[in-house]
Amino acid sequence: MPPAIVSPALTQTLALSLLGAIPALVLGILVGPAWGWALMALVVFLQLLNALRYFARLERWSRNPQPTAELEGAGAWDEVFSRLYRHEKELRSAIATRDADLAMVESAGQAIVDGIVTLDIDNRISWCNKVAEKQLGLDLRSDRGQPIANLVREPAFVAYLTGGNYRLPLRLSAPHNPELMLSIHLLPYAGGFRLMQARDVTQSERLDRMRRDFVANVSHELRTPLTILGGFLETVRELELTPAEHERYLGLMADQSDRMLRIVQDLLMLSALESAPKPGNDRVRMVALLEKLKADAVALSAGKHEITLDADSVDILGAESELASAFGNLISNAVRYTPAGGRIDISWKRCGTSAEYAVTDDGIGIAPEHIPRLTERFYRADNGRSRESGGTGLGLAIVKHALTRHQATLDIASRPGNGSRFSALFPPARLVD
Amino acid sequence: MTESTHQSKQFDEELSGLRTHVLEMGGLVESQIRSAIDVYVTSETAIVKDIVENDHRVNAYEKIIDDETVHVVARRQPTASDLRLVMGITKIVTDLERIGDEAKKIAKGARRVYEHGQLTLPRVTEIRHVADEAVLMLRRGLDAFARLDVQLASEVIHADAKVDTEFKALVRQLITYMMEDPRTISTAIDIVWICRSIERIGDHAKNIAEHVIYIAEGRDVRHTKETSA
């Protein structure tokens, strides 16, 4: 049914007004036309007054339309009022729903681990999440509407932004933190708008570099002894040698093949550690183990160092072979890098509810720039010295791995010339009295 | 960001474009300093050529922006805060161009250090530290300009004293090397020049911060002790 042009309520009001005209007409006929007109005027005036009253009410309400404020009328007014009132109420609830939806979308944007910035047609920031604020040094409260290039000013980024070719992401180090590598991708949407995604790729960049370095290093480490071996083989085959020389060359060749064997063994050990299931919960008798490792160290040192052991009677739950290899490695490192006459202290101490294993020496120490990279495979702080003393470059990588598998953390403290302290902190769950 | 409303939307766009150009130039200058310091730290002298090349771009920016400001003044006759913005920009651009020159000097100086062959004195790694400090001042100065953030600008102004102190300490250290072994003098002097350039970058960054305060508040804080916002 199409809506009536004139609503029933309005016709009713109209009829009522006309009804007021009837007594006026009667009075006009009975008493005189002047009286009739006077009554008519009075009726019209009263109706006008009534209309004005409702108008005033509407006017007051419209200044601040609140669904809570009362808006009531009578007759045709009431209908209009209630419709207005309903409209206002619906509008408000619709806005509230939108706001809630928008807040949901926004919090979804906050939940993304990547930095997200939305840009308008002129590359001005319209919104960004907290991650992006941190990565790019933005502050949404003050930077909304600011062209992004005003704040991220790296020439490479500006060129990417204005270049228009967004098929590939851009690698960029974060403006205020060169250590942080970002991969920035611009995704056009809804016409001229753009979504900027900034992903933290520091870790994967580092892993990539380590993998590349690793392959190069393995090849290099194995090639060197092979080359030497090949050289000696040629010599032995082509030159007339005295038995003494012959013996000497064979000895040198055996050294090189030993070294290669050690490298391969260490590599196998590492890969075994990586792929092996979690270490078991066997009880490792620490005091006995450390006594044995100390004896080995004394033999290796051949009386050149003073070696002490101070062990509490706390045992570890774990794999003995892995722990022995880790602890032994730290001790033999100390022996090899401490000049004759130096002192090496091995300690195993309770430390609150945890326990700490530490090897402290007063040897040559390590420069600070090397410390974070020491546990990388084949990383050497001092190339010549390390190989001379028979290292494979894998020792600390193995130590780190073995300790991590036991939830222990390796800490290295050192100052060049002042010795070093390698310590491993074991969590209470791994300890047993 | 404070955006006044003008009768002409185009005027707004012109001013906004002008700011963006200044900040683009700033970004370029900032990366120039970084590359120049990298030459010193990593001894990769191959990139010196690029730095010299890029300095032409810095100079080109200066010319373009100067042109644009003249146009804005001639066509729009800006007043009040707009006028301060335009005047401030011309000064900031001058400082940025000088910083670009200092970056070029650092790069060339570093190349000279390595051309002398083996570095005959301990590599002065503290330079990296002071340089980072100066670059940070510049970056924060430009951030303050982008946001017209007076608080940040006055922090930049205060940071200059630190760069100056570290510069003096570096020079003292170099003097000891020179006294110990006169053969190191020529290299040490090259390094002193590099330090000097870094210290100048700090000064220019401070100037930029002062211009920002002028643009935002109309206060001239140059050559005064009063810098707090």
Account of the protein in words:
The complex is a heterodimer of chains A (433) and B (229). Chain A has 433 residues and is an alpha+beta fold. Chain A has four domains: 8-92, no CATH class; 112-200, PAS domain (Beta-Lactamase, 2-Layer Sandwich), CATH 3.30.450; 205-275, Helix Hairpins (Orthogonal Bundle), CATH 1.10.287; 282-432, Histidine kinase-like ATPase, C-terminal domain (Heat Shock Protein 90, 2-Layer Sandwich), CATH 3.30.565.10. Chain A has helices at residues 8-30, 33-63, 76-111, 130-136, 140-143, 148-151, 155-163, 202-238, 243-275, 286-301, 320-337, 383-388, 395-405, and strands at residues 115-119, 125-128, 170-174, 177-189, 193-200, 282-284, 306-311, 315-318, 343-351, 354-361, 409-414, 420-426, 431-432. Chain B has a single domain, classed as Methane Monooxygenase Hydroxylase, Chain G, domain 1, CATH 1.20.58. In chain B, helix 1 (9-42) runs parallel beside helix 3 and helix 5 (150-180) runs antiparallel to helix 6 (185-217). Chain B is elongated.
Overall body shape of chain A: elongated
- The CATH topology annotation of chain B reads as Methane Monooxygenase Hydroxylase, Chain G, domain 1
The strand order across the widest sheet of chain A is 2-1-5-4-3
What CATH architecture of the largest domain in chain A do you see? 2-Layer Sandwich
Give the overall shape of chain B: elongated
